[in-house]
Each structure stands twice: as C-alpha cells, then as structure tokens.
Amino acid sequence: MKTTKAAAVSFTGAVKTFGEVRAVAGLDLEIAAGETVALLGRNGAGKSTSLSLLLGLDEPDEGHVELFGTAPQDAVRAGWVGAMLQEGRAVPRVTVAELVSFVAGRYPHPMDVREALRLAGIEELAGRRVDKLSGGQTQRVRFAVALAGSPALLVLDEPTAALDVEARHAFWASMRAYARRGHTVLFSTHYLEEADANADRIVVIDHGRVVADGSGDELRRAGGGSLVSFDLAGRGTAGLELLPGVTSVEVRGDRARLRTEDSDAAVLALAAQSLVRNLEVKTASLDDAFMALTAAPGASADLDELDDPDPLERV
Ligand SMILES: Nc1ncnc2c1ncn2[C@@H]1O[C@H](COP(=O)(O)OP(=O)(O)OP(=O)(O)O)[C@@H](O)[C@H]1O
Fold it and tell me: What is the complex's ipTM, to 2 decimals?
C-alpha cells in the first residue's frame, strides 16, 4: 500500500548470490522521495544487480527491497517506475514516436509523447525506425521510453555510456529538469564528475554493499583527506606510516605520497625530519577518494593514474 511517508527506495539487508559470487551482499539503502542519487562502484561491484532487484527483475535471496513501501513488481505494475537499462533489444520496424507512444499508453498518467521526445533530445528522430539508429541515438530513445510514463521513480543504468559530449550535457540538463519536478532519480555511473555535478547524494558500493554515502564533499573528506608528496632523496620509508593522521604511504621511484587526515601536523613532522624536498600538499580529488574507498585491503594505487586522471574521471 502506498503511503506518503514511505521511502521511494528501500533495501534492507538485500543479498543476491550467483553461484559463488555474492553480487549483492547485505545492501542497506534508503532513498527519500524527491532525491537524486548516484550509484558508483567499480566493475562488478553489484550496481546492475542491485538495480535488477529494485526493478523486480530479480528476487533477493535474503532481505527485502521495497519501492514506495510496496513490492517492486507492484510498484512497476502501478506505473510508478521508469527505467533505462544498459541492454534491451530494439523492436524492429516501429518508429521512435510509435515506440514511445506505446510505452506511454501503458502508464496511468503518461507524459505527452512530444514532451518525452523533446526532453530526450530526439524530436528530429520521431519518424525514424528504432532498429536503424546509432548507439547514442538508441540511448536517447531509451531515455524517452523511461520518461514516457512520467514515473515517480526514474532508474537509469549508466545513462551516458554511449553519448558524445554535447549529448551528455543535454541529457543531464533534462534529467535535472525532471528531478526538479519532484521526481526521484537513481542513476548508476562510472563518471565521478557527472555524479558530483548531478546528484544530491552519492552512494558508493563495493563487493555488493554500501561503503560510502554522502555528498561529493563528504566523500572527498571520508575517503581522501589530503595528499602530501615529497622526494625521499634516498631516505627510506620506515616510520612514515606513523606520522600524524597518515592512513597510507605510496612510493614511486624516489617520490613518496602520504594520505593523511591532518596535513598540517604531517608536514611539521616531515620538516622535523628534513623531508620537505619538492613538497606538495593537495586535497584529495573525488577520484582519489573513490579509489581509497573501494581499494582492496593492501592494494597499492598507481601514482601515475592518480596524478593524471581522465578528464571525466571515469572509474
Ligand atoms: N546472471 C549472473 N550470473 C552470474 N554472475 C553474475 C550475474 N550477474 C552478475 N554477476 C556477477 O555479479 C557481480 C556483480 O555484477 P554487476 O553486473 O551487478 O556489477 P556492476 O557493478 O553493475 O558492474 P559494471 O560496472 O561492470 O556494470 C559480478 O561479479 C558479476 O560477474
């Protein structure tokens, strides 16, 4: 039964196992109605499986998943949910407008078809056959299909994966416009900057459970702290892990980098040991924080990768 108080999305101890693999391993997550939430995680972290549970495409082995206080299948059947998934075969021989109209017709309070095409940026494709489109065009048709029912909850699995830069900007502008109307949006992505710019909240999952949940700034603080780099000039690394606030020590060639929660105290301690050659202090990026939050215990990060991230910070 739908109540105004119920969360839009609620995972309680959800588990989904495939043979030996615990794809979702005790997921607890609540998303309030009206929130826009990004789901981040490395390849295989469990994002798509979590979205399948949420959409009622799969059942959890343990725990519960609810949408608006009811079972996912019931919420989907009631027309409260629209989804854009990574896969899905194109329907042959129908036009874009026919497909979007067909989907809209299955919802109780659909969006005007032209409005859905406009929001997805594909008005000019209305008369084109859906099985004759490019990858990016197909992706935007999927977005129009997800919007067609004017759903209270919009679920988007890697929505910008095949889009060029201009299409990405247009997509996020439309997504935000839709969210501003009071709808709940949950999207998964590998693009940290896109998550930071377009979500109220970022949920990081790793090995099938939530490892961080907050705004981009909160994640930077939780996972990153500050990075203090300097030349070792032949000196060893013994004792560096004991300096104030230091949570990790990485060494590449003759250069060391400390991740620390107290960069001022760490720098003073380094100065006392005359270890301030080519000293550099910077706040961790969201990319750094993400890698720290999802790194396997004992894994060492590649300094080149951290110092020269992809402009879009894809993870
Ligand atoms: N149907 C399935 N059968 C067997 N294993 C599966 C199945 N679906 C997912 N898995 C495994 O479960 C784990 C989680 O996969 P999932 O697709 O949910 O991750 P993801 O975070 O969406 O990854 P990506 O970013 O690569 O899309 C992986 O180890 C994957 O190989």
Answer: 0.97
